[in-house]
Amino acid sequence: MAFILDAVLGVVAIAILAIVVLVIVLFNGFVSRRNRVQDAWAQIDVQLKRRYDLIPNLINSVKGYMTYEKSVLTQVTQLRTSIMNGNAQDKAQANNQLSQALKSIFAVAENYPDLKASQNFINLQQQLMDTEDKIAFVRTSYNDYVLEYNNSLQEFPGNVFSVRFGFKKADFFQAPEEEKQNIKVDFSDVNNMQGSQPKAGAAQQKPSKK
């Protein structure tokens, strides 16, 4: 009888030990994956901050030229503020809207040869484009880590313990569905307004004297 009892206790002890080891492995795995997500998010934040710092210089360099596009410049200024606030999805949405607004500015700049030839504007445009590429690169890594982390929380046996440990799903950094569509920028109104203005340097016709 004592032998059977010892055997049962041994099995129970092994089962308890296995559960403890499983819990430790799961917990450490959650922490490791969450830290990778947070580190990747920090890399995104660095690039968002760099873009945030470049925008005032861009606004100052173009506002003297773009007479009819003040609403675009205002939108860029507002998005610049919102891009540093909120959660990952809020920042992703603001970032994508800002990207489209900046594309609008660069497209309109084609109508201003002096601006387009400005070395300061060219440098700012290149730096913003480089930042955009870096954001896209680190966003891919971040989303991969988020997917791995979220899967570990939802798959068995992780889903049994993740809630009890207080781990929560992370947000992806991506564009909303409506912003994945191709953006159509219409500057017909701007061009019409420019066409109605006298061209620089053009001689105005004077009424002929009889």
How many helices? The count is 7
Shape: rod-shaped
- Say what oligomer this is: single chain
Helix amount, in percent? over 70%
Known CATH architecture? Up-down Bundle
| Main sheet attributes: strand count, strand direction, barrel closure | none
Poorly predicted residue ranges: 176-210
The helix/strand class is mainly alpha
User: For the terminal residues, how far apart are their CA atoms?
Assistant: 134 Å
Query: What is the CATH third-level topology name?
Result: de novo design (two linked rop proteins)
CATH superfamily, please?
A: LemA-like domain
Following the backbone from N to C, one meets helices and strands in this order, namely HHHHHHH
What is the CATH domain class? Mainly Alpha
What is the percentage of strand-forming residues? under 5%
Rg calculated over all Cα atoms = 29 Å
- Provide the residue-averaged pLDDT: 80
Structural commentary:
- The protein is mainly alpha-helical.
- It has a single domain (2-165), classed as de novo design (two linked rop proteins), CATH 1.20.1440.20.
- It has helices at residues 2-62, 70-82, 88-108, 113-117, 119-154, 158-165, 188-195.
- It is rod-shaped, with a radius of gyration of 29 Å.
- The termini are far apart.
